[in-house]
Amino acid sequence: MVWGCLTIQNSNFLKSKKRFDFKSLASITGSFISCISISQVIITNSSFITDNRLETDPGISLSDFKSLQTDDLTSIQCAVGTKLIEEKLHEEKSKCDLSLTLSCTTCAPRTYSLVRGRSIGFSVVTQSSCLACPYGATYYELLGI
Prior knowledge:
Helix content is 0%, strand content 59%. It is mainly β. The chain has a five-stranded mixed beta sheet with strand order 1-5-7-10-9, with no helix packed on it. It has a five-stranded mixed beta sheet with strand order 2-6-8-12-13, with no helix packed on it. It is elongated, with a radius of gyration of 17 Å.
């Protein structure tokens, strides 16, 4: 069963911490958006920015939705030194439900990026991919050098 509609307009979201401590209990902050079984998703003129290079949670996770609308003024921006990965939209033939996950991930060993992984709308910009380190250079993920 599919419920409701999610609309986000003219909004900016910034995620700069990996964990929050609450009464001595640590919890992971999670995704910007995580929805299951929603009818329609509309996101316009909004940005989702993370400055945490070690982020492992999906930035956007939508499953079992019927319709997605974004505009070119909407973007996802990962931390410098990471890339944005998209798990393709797919359709379950019996239900015609769609799923989409966009996640930031660090560059693989011996590769680097000096820019943010990013999207225009929810389309990943390929110019922000990781590049091979030049001969003799090494990228240390935790130090960011």
